[in-house]
Amino acid sequence: MEEGQELNKWEGYVNWRNKPAMRDQHGGMLAASFVLVVEILENLAFLANASNLVLYLSKFMHYSPSSSANIVTNFMGTAFLLAVLGGFLSDAYFTTYRLYLTSAAIEFMGLLILTVQAHTPSLKPPICASASTEIQCEKVNRRKAAMLFTGLYLVALGVGGIKGSLPPHGAEQFDDTTPQGRKQRSSFFNYYVFSLSCGALIAVTFVVWIEDNKGWQWGFGVATAAILASIPVFLLGSPIYRTKIPAGSPITTMFKVLIAAVCNNCKSKNPSNAVMGMKTSPSSYTTETGEEGNATKVKVPSQTLTEDLEFLNKAVTEKTVSPMLQCTVKQVEEVKVVLKIIPVFMCTIMLNCCLAQLSTFSIQQAATMNTKIGSLKVPPASLPVFPVIFVMLIAPTYNHFVVPFARKVTKTEMGITHLQRIGTGLILSIIAMAVAAVVEMKRKKVAIESGLLNSAEPLPITFLWIALQYLFLGSADLFTLAGMMDFFFTEAPKSMRSLATSLSWVSLSMGYYFSSVLISTVNNITSIFRHTPWLSGSNLNHYHLERFYWLMCILSSLNFLHYLFWANRYKYRTESTAD
């Protein structure tokens, strides 16, 4: 009886009461479903304001278009960068369960501050009703700006914790030792992106309409209510969650292996410091026993060091500089895995730099155009509804039709590999930037021909032209984000899965930061050759945005070639995802 209970336990997992998780009671798709619903509410709260924030900063806080764009990209970048802190804490000290609840409370506090400021006229600059784009309005003062940025960055801290803990919490509900469990986990990541889109759909339609027609205090209020509602929804799944037990700092292990490798390589001329009799092997980290007479076929950790990144093999020695630097074969091989996924991670940053334009210049472009569809006036910040709806349609189609078909054709468990998905997203981002450049050329041509170059009046051209770049970038996001999350979670060692999954958000963060750096660099360089930089001033019609988009297209193409170099050389750690 007791032996049966032991076999029924999830090794390394506990329930919400910190007792051993049981296979027949905890985990599975039902437990992960609560995570998907929570993500709808959480992303609604985050994107409700992020999607329209650039207009709030320019119209109500009186920042210039380029300053507003940089503030938004820095805010979004910080929020996603802090996901790495959330992932680290989930792996090392806290459970994903506790970290989500703490992070949701922090985001709630930040949104509450922003709601109070938006509701109180004395906490905002005086209203500027000028119809001319040449007249400067009074900017927000230091005290009011301090309140604005306190609220924004509390939201960023909360979002970071949630993004770093919620996806791995959902993915950990599946048994990765079975093909069925791995397939369900892959489906979970597809539907996680679907849930992101559901929250985004409500955010860029209903909440943006409220912000534009009823006031920003109501928009912030809806976001505050959404994040508050996500907490009891998350708690409803508590009885069936299984949560990974924190295994200590994975960063410490990585630094220990790297330092030991450096020290031992420096002393490699000493014969007594030879590697512990373990020959390097080109075999996978996981091997099957039974190749030499043993009939069992159970996967066990290999006791041989692989030939990849051979420099690190010196970390395993009989005599080390310090007992604290004593490393095992398993630790060295795990660090190798992390180092090998970093080039793939770096190649996704440029795509996310392209995505950053969706919440900045693209919205400002649409704001200068005719935003009416028949008699309905569409807020510019609702433009993302096009890629969102497209993602909501294509995600189930991809999961239920494309992947099963690919599995039959390739006769592999994955059907379409993670790296193929990411590569598809990179190609779509190149097309999106080319389309964006052509559309901007058309928009400016209309402004010149209509004599509205210096006017704040809407141009006689429909904003639906901007929707084209949204469709391509939305598709790129679906392929790349789900592919990245599944790739990092699957390939990473169990002790650092949350941290590895958070790299998906760090890539997004660095894309936003790179966008800010790129804008500043372009302005600095172009100001040397021209009196006015490409992306400076309060009038978007005077910007050379089309040249900036062409530059992004070229950089994205070069990045894709860089990606192909690493993707073609990457070997999957697990046999289930190997070609």
Which helices and strands occur, and which strands form pairs?
Layout: H1 2-7, E1 9-14, E2 20-22, H2 29-50, H3 53-59, H4 65-81, H5 83-92, H6 96-119, H7 142-171, H8 179-213, H9 216-236, E3 243-244, H10 250-266, E4 280-281, E5 286-288, E6 299-301, E7 305-306, H11 329-347, H12 349-356, H13 361-367, E8 369-370, E9 372-373, E10 376-377, H14 385-410, H15 418-449, E11 459-462, H16 467-491, H17 497-501, H18 503-529, H19 545-567
Helix pairs in contact: 2-7, 2-8, 2-9, 3-4, 4-7, 4-18, 5-7, 6-7, 6-9, 8-9, 8-14, 8-16, 12-16, 12-18, 14-16, 15-16, 15-19
Describe this entry's structure for a reader.
The chain is mainly alpha-helical and 579 residues long. The chain has 3 domains: 1-125 and 141-247, Up-down Bundle (Growth Hormone, Chain: A); 249-268 and 308-327, no CATH class; 338-571, MFS general substrate transporter like domains (Growth Hormone, Chain: A). The chain is built from 19 helices and 11 strands. The protein has helices at residues 2-7, 29-50, 53-59, 65-81, 83-92, 96-119, 142-171, 179-213, 216-236, 250-266, 329-347, 349-356, 361-367, 385-410, 418-449, 467-491, 497-501, 503-529, 545-567; strands at 9-14, 20-22, 243-244, 280-281, 286-288, 299-301, 305-306, 369-370, 372-373, 376-377, 459-462. The chain has a 3-stranded antiparallel β-sheet. A hairpin with a 5-residue loop joins strand 1 and strand 2 (20-22). Helix 4 packs parallel to helix 7 (142-171) and helix 8 (179-213) packs antiparallel against helix 9 (216-236). It is globular, with a radius of gyration of 26 Å. It starts with a helix and ends in a 12-residue tail after the last helix. Mean pLDDT is 81; it is low at 272-280, 282-302 and 575-579.
